[in-house]
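Async update (no meeting this week)

Hi team, since we skipped the sync, here's where things stand on the single-chain job. The sequence we agreed to prioritize is pasted below, unchanged from the tracker. I ran it this morning and attached the output directly underneath so nobody has to dig for it. Comments welcome in thread, and please keep replies under the output.
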Amino acid sequence: MCIRDSVYTVLVDGRAWFDSKGASLGFGFSSNGATFSLAEGSMAPVGGVTTGVSTDAAGSYDWLEIGWAASGSHTVDWTTRFKAYHERSVLCFVQSWPGGATNTSGSTFPSLRHVNSDQLGVLEYTGSSCGFMVGPSKGFPGITGGQSKGYSVILPMDTTGNGANVSLAIGPSTEQFVNQARNSEGSLCYGVASSFEAVPVAFSVETVLVAGMSSSRPERVSVPSGGVNAALFEYGDFQLALHGKERARGNHTRETAYLGYSTTAFYFYNLCDCLDPAPLDPATGKPNAHSRWNCSLKGSSIPSRFLSRSAVPGSCVTYELSLIHISEPTRLLSISYAVFCLKKKKSKQ
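Output:
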């Protein structure tokens, strides 16, 4: 991340990918029926730039904050903060309203304009849970944006056949139904949606940009470091750490010893607690988590009669079918589901 004269540039492996010279010149907010932006010259920084080092549940980070006011005013109406984590490939954009605001019509931060010659593709995750469906697009920003949208993966065109070197995931960290993405003047922008008419005192929204990285964690050893899955894993790991959570693993309760669950209505998570490394796939020479045929824990404890014929008892491959299926347990919205209850049959004396 580089900031100079109110222009910020996002660097990936030391190379510029985006800058803020597009929509609103990277900064814009609204209040009392008026819209202010750096591009129009209707707002200006107040009180200079402040910096520091802080720590939260996800780790330590450097931060830089700028206070903004309508031109001619000396009261801070809106603040923007950059957060760059030390041990994670994570950059956060935080916007806040210290005194709140009424009669609003949206805000802009960040605003990312593509600046290098790479051909980019974008996967926009959409649906009521912001992740139910995926809309692929060639070119950047490549999104429709708006309600029920906001989570995207950005990846460069693969010119070698070996996969992308790095992919980025971006989306709201907080207030996912308020902080919406939009395509504006060729830039990917985030901020409070124009449909919201007011924000309370000290209200803030945060947008997270992460780069996919390699990891030695068992669930990620077979995930290429530069691909879409690596970026999504990194985004998820950051969110889990931020909220003091851990990624769920199979067979950790009496119930999950028998019940599988899925978030795609077909593929199941690996229902085994072993830490065995994934063997190399002879065809690709890369680890393949679906080929662990010899498990040190003798595979999942799910009885074979409950598994599909494609699953092999004693292995820890991903099972494709279970006796009882509970779909989409991680949705963000309250949606009705069918629930099955099992009652142990009492034996008669």
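Quick observations from my side:
The first strand starts at residue 2 and ends at 4.
DSSP finds one helix and 21 strands in the chain.
Reply here if anything looks off.
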